């Protein structure tokens, strides 16, 4: 987890403008979502008071347009996160390629080519997913929560206390479940890497299993590996979904 935070801070420092843009869009989406129920209530009040079909048609058009704008804003937000995470993994990829080109062949052989391939592809995509999307989303959500608590305190301190303790309970559940989820995710990732290793082995030894008739060995090995991955993924999904529902 510390490594993730270090990468996240490094990404923010490297691309402050892209990160700030994503936060501004988060606040804009929050405001738009908060305004929507008020707008619907105002529309229904006007519609009940006038009972005119022209208001009904106009309201539907405005509501559809507003939803379209909300969708476009969310698309822009995802695009900003793609830019933020994409620029960061580009830097990491270039740094890895430079480092590998300067590393001795003996050291590379010790690390294993398959492991290097996986790090430069699958692990890099994990960095993009976590640093580029999940962490900014969590950070933006926390800022929004703090802003809402401050506004709630201005209007009703008692409601703010209730919201605050609800938030603390949710954070406690998230904190204690984090290690369990991380362990399960690590197991699934290991099973996925085993699948990748077996696939690479099958391709690398293609001439061998064509000439020595050992296809059954690879078929059984692949079936066993995929079965292990599916069972591990199912256990992870059960744990994650349980804690996800608990957080709600």
Describe the 3D structure.
Helix 3 packs antiparallel against helix 5. The protein is built from eight helices and no strands. With 248 residues, it is mainly α. The protein starts with a helix and ends with a helix.
Please tag this protein with its features.
about 250 residues; mainly alpha; about 0% strand; elongated
Beta-strand percentage?
under 5%
> Distance between termini?
23 Å
Structural category is mainly alpha
Query: What is the overall pLDDT average?
Result: 78
The number of helical segments is 8
Give the overall silhouette: elongated
Helix content: over 70%
Radius of gyration: 25 Å
| Largest sheet descriptor | none
Describe the secondary structure blueprint for this structure:
Elements: H1 2-14, H2 16-50, H3 53-101, H4 105-111, H5 113-155, H6 157-204, H7 206-211, H8 215-247
Helix pairs in contact: 1-5, 2-3, 2-5, 3-5, 5-6, 6-8
Summed up, what is this model?
The protein is mostly helical and 248 residues long. The protein has eight helices and no strands.
